[in-house]
Structures are given as C-alpha cells and as structure tokens.
Amino acid sequence: MADKPAIVLVHGFWGGAAHWAKVIVELRRRGYESLYAVENPLTGLADDAARTQKMVRQIPGPVLLVGHSYGGAVITEAGDLPNVEGLVYVAAFAPDAGESPGQITEQLPPAAPAAIAPDSDGYLWIAQDKFHDSFCQDLSDDEALVMAVTQKAPLGSAFGDAVTAPAWKAKPTWYQVSTEDRMINPDNERRMAERMGPRRIVELPTGHASLASQPGAIADLIDAAVADLGYV
C-alpha cells in the first residue's frame, strides 16, 4: 500500500498560509506527515503560480494541491507539474483558459463586494468592520478580528489575471461549495465545479472561510481525494 501524498495548501486573497491552521492540525492528527502551506505574494497570478511551483518542485514524491478562494486559480495555473496528482478546490476559483477571477465574479456577483476597496498603492482591502460579516460570518468575533487585522491584501490587478492552461483539464479534481459564501457567489462555485467534472462535489452550509469554520469537513474531502487516488 502506498504512502499518503504530500499535501500542499494554497491560500487566497486577504489571507496567508496560516489561514490553513485548523486544517493542518486536523490533517496531522489523521496521519499526514508531509504537509506544506505556500505563502504567496498575491501580486499576480504568474507570481503566485511560480511561487507555488517552486515549493512543489522541492517535494520528491506525489503531491495533492489544495486551493482556497483565489488559491484555486493558482493551483489551476500551477498544477501541471508531473508530480501533482490532483487538485482540491475549497470555495475556490477554477478558471478556464483565458478566464480570470474578476470575469467570473462579474458574471454572478457575490453578496459582499462593497466591503472591498483599493488603497493608494493599488492593493485591495476588506474594510475591517465588514470583514466578519463578509468573509467569515460563522467564525467567532475574536477569530474574525484576527483575520481582519492580519489580512494580506492582493494587488487589484491580480483579479484580472487570466489562466493560460487549466490543470483541471488534465488532473483529477474535487470541489467544496460554501452555500453561504458572500465573497464568491455559491452558484458561481457550483458552475465552476460542474464544468470540471470533479470526482466529488461537497456542499457545506458555511461562509467563505470554510477552511477555518469547517476544518474537519475539509480534511474529509482531502481524505476522499487521497482515497480516490488509490492511497491509504
């Protein structure tokens, strides 16, 4: 029986690698020994995909890429490396070729776009007093406060960066829909998931930050992906 693959976790906008904290703890508890969380610059899709690929190339064995939010666009762009065996999307963008997260968002706007505003340097921020209600309404006040204050703003131009060759057309996929998502329209998540033809689609009654509010369920989906790939 084969060992488990390495799990590489890719964060999205307004967060960093630490957004995966609860999932990391849960995966280690379940016996995953090879865990990585990329810290992407959020300066553009090419930059973020390159940073993710650098990490993946340092891993000698098979890899399962897991992306949250914009991190889904990153794994879509970065996931064509030969040791990447599958892609797990967590309330995430999964653009097609020539498509950007911004284009997808315009097609079916989410509930909370008014909470986002650029600063004078072109970085996009979620207003701190709107972060809880917009990004993570099912977390505690204290958890939301920490996320709001430590948020990692992306360059606004990154929203318009289009995917070139989507890895989901060649790799097995799994998708988690957040039915109460206010940052990505849940119907957009369903549409992106269905067109990929994933092995599994899981719907959770949670907001955008499902990686923090539902870490057990996200770990369950990763377990399912690992099992579907034939690992113990």
From TrEMBL:
Residues 7-220 form the AB hydrolase-1 domain. Pfam families: Abhydrolase_6 (PF12697). Keywords: Hydrolase. One of its GO terms (molecular function) is hydrolase activity. InterPro entries: AB_hydrolase_1, AB_hydrolase_fold, Sec-Metab_Biosynth_Hydrolase. This is Alpha/beta hydrolase. It comes from Nocardia tengchongensis.
